[in-house]
Write a structure and sequence with these properties.
By secondary structure, this protein is mainly β. Helix content is 11%, strand content 36%. A hairpin with a 2-residue loop joins strand 1 (30-40) and strand 2.
Length: 139
Amino acid sequence: MAEILPPAAAHSGGNSGSTTTPDTKPSETRKTDKTFENIAKDTNATLTVEKNDKGEVTDARAQLDKTVKNASETKKTTISADVVAKLVQEAGTSDITITQTTKNASGKVMNSVSVNAKDLQAGKKLTLVKVDKRQEKKS
């Protein structure tokens, strides 16, 4: 960065001098949020996409909130290929971190899972198992 001198110092000794400062602006990030109600059964989503000043996606995150009515539904959760495809299309990238939080009917969080959309393939299952170390049983 160029040093800016006070007027007396800039013009001392009969030589006129000038200083310039580069025209630098911090890069601007634009953030947009889009909400999808009922993107899947009992599931709402919020997609957050950040783009730099060139319009390139720098970050994309989706929060899926699923409400289940039966206790048996809290042990297993799915994200459909259609939902992933819609989020990828809307974000303009497959590099999206998708977090799905499952809540019971009273709003208590039962589980939360995060995965990157580019790691998912339609028709393939990603199984996560929670181990209860106190009981040493899979739950």
